[in-house]
Amino acid sequence: MNVLVLGGYGLIGDAVIGRLLRDGHDVTGLGRDVQDAGRRRPAVRWIAADMSKLLAAEDWLPAVAGMDAVVNAAGALQDGPRDRLDAVHRGAVVALVAACEQAGVHRFAQISAIGADLASANPFFSTKAQGDQAVASSSLAWTILRPGLVIAPAAYGGTALLRALATFPGFVPAVMTRQPIQTVAVTDVAEAVSRAVAGSLPPRLAVDLVEANARPLAEVLTALRAWLGLQPARVVPMPAILGRLAGAVADMLGILGWRSPLRSAALAAVARGVTGDAAAWNRISGRPLQPLEATLADMPANVQERWFARLWLAKPVIFACLSLFWLVSGVVGLIRQEAAADILVSHGVSASLAHILVPVGSAADILVGAAVVVRSLARHALLAMIAITLSYLAGATLLVPGLWLDPLGPLVKTIPALCLVLVALAVLDER
Known about the structure:
Layout: E1 2-6, H1 11-22, E2 26-31, H2 35-40, E3 45-48, H3 57-64, E4 69-72, H4 85-103, E5 107-111, H5 123-136, E6 141-147, E7 149-151, H6 157-166, E8 172-174, E9 180-181, E10 183-185, H7 186-198, E11 205-209, E12 215-216, H8 217-227, E13 235-237, H9 240-255, H10 264-272, H11 278-285, H12 292-297, H13 303-335, H14 337-346, H15 351-371, H16 375-399, H17 414-426
Parallel strand pairs: 1-2, 1-4, 2-3, 4-5, 5-6, 6-11, 7-10, 8-13
Antiparallel strand pairs: 9-12
């Protein structure tokens, strides 16, 4: 069959594509940033498109033409510069369903979310439910799948955060530790999609995909820590106000383009509990979905998982330190221009050149220090930091080589700062 998968490079979408390829289907993937996906999945035909802008049936007709089935694994957590929930979850799905009906696409699999509810005050859940409603009211042979907490070899968003918390030294900090969680292996989600595409599930089916029993969040964290091969540690409940504060900070970072899983929408999802009805799928499939223990046993962790989890926690600290370092350096240079210029003059730089270098250098420091916290500018800012630092070192070596022997080490100390920039570049990618 010819199958179109939306969001095919995401946590669930990539697993779905892998399964459909193994089933022998011809797969087309659609998403905003498909360059990396094309390298990872060269057997897939990729379409670069922003779903939030495909809000009419005619916008979708070229993509769905000739398709036998469509799988919608796309989604967003919260509104932001790159995400519009109503457009992605509702508007685009309404238009897509209409296009599928016009083009004669027969089967449609919708990856929804546990807790999707038209009456929810949370825009994530309400818009998801509106998209589900558009699918369910169509003439297509549809399947709506609502996974619990998806566990996969890859980790984005919330699952990455849980891995990171599980590696915390000495103890495991968490809010809402008693909230019930039901997990599902990404392979089981992909299996369900495979069956939906093949038509081996009952028609017009909406079903939860969760393990049989719920467990508290603290138990999930404990299991992840053991999976990572770390010594047992006590899960310490954190005050709820810390969670709200973290959510507020993450929401502000979302305005700057960072897609933190700590945003208020994610915390609201945990607060209601990530639970569903396991019995319905068990009746349909004849077997329960595997529990968390079996999921983790099927994907043993190695050193790369520990590196990732630890660096994930360190990443915001790294970027905050770099931003503050460059901002403070620039501000101090502007406030004390004369003193900074006198230092250069004392090492043989002409007064006129010194009074040019100090404000220009300070302005550059402030510019990159501010830009590095904007997600779309971060890579350019980090590269600029490297260029500025190397220029600073080269210029100082030529003009005032004695600074290398200065007791306070103004040149020597730039080397570890430069190394930190390289670390930030290495961990910048989110997916």
